[in-house]
Amino acid sequence: MSRLNSSRRIQIDTSEPRYDDDGDETLDDVNAGLKSQPSNSNMTEDLDPFMGVKVRRKASRLRDYQGDYIDIQSRPHLMKILEKQGDRKVLFADKVIKFTGSGKMKRRILLITDFAIYIVDPETDALKRRIALAAVEKLCLSELSDNFFATIIPTEYDLLMASTRKTEIVTVLVDATKSASDYELEVALSNRFEYNAAAEVVKEVQFEEVEGGVKTRIAQK
């Protein structure tokens, strides 16, 4: 697995994720090709060639980070989850796409506080996972203009997600980790990286720049 440390700033992209009324997960730049699910555990997932591609406007590049994109104060169930864990300072809140160990996509709410990462099911308001920032070893993302990022947690299984606010999420996680522990979280940039999708499932994510966009491929090792 290629490991690159980089201090260069990733271009800011602030357009919002879009979710269909029927509950299907979509991003503005992720079209129907992403929704196909593998029917076999050994199958390679060929994702749409144009997924993860954003047309960036000048205004979007210059827009400041907002942090809370879902008005968490108006969502008592989310506040209750945080209070139960002793967390009150929310650094980031938004809807994302999470990839399961079997390759399915799930719509989730991602919360980042100064102590932990929370993954919440927006349909049931249930806390699906809490990850202490101290448990995160590094973040993996490509060098291209896609929306994917993997959070590597050596003591647990890893987390692959997609968000049009990837740059802001990475920035928040790096800053929060440094503030909490004076430890600088590694950000590994590579167009091919592995992550543990489940206890005994390792997958490789490959990115390739093609005409008009980025082709993303997820394959089980």
Automatic annotation (TrEMBL):
Superkingdom of origin: Eukaryota
InterPro entries: Myosin_TH1 (IPR010926)
Region entry Disordered, spans: 1-47
Residues in TH1 domain copies: 54-221
Chain ranges passing through the membrane: none
Organism placement in taxonomy: Eukaryota, Viridiplantae, Streptophyta, Embryophyta, Tracheophyta
Pfam families: Myosin_TH1
Name of the protein: Myosin heavy chain-like protein
Sequence ranges of Polar residues compositional bias: 1-14, 34-44
PANTHER family associated with the record: OS01G0621700 PROTEIN (PTHR34969), TH1 DOMAIN-CONTAINING PROTEIN (PTHR34969:SF1)
UniProt organism field: Salvia divinorum (Maria pastora)
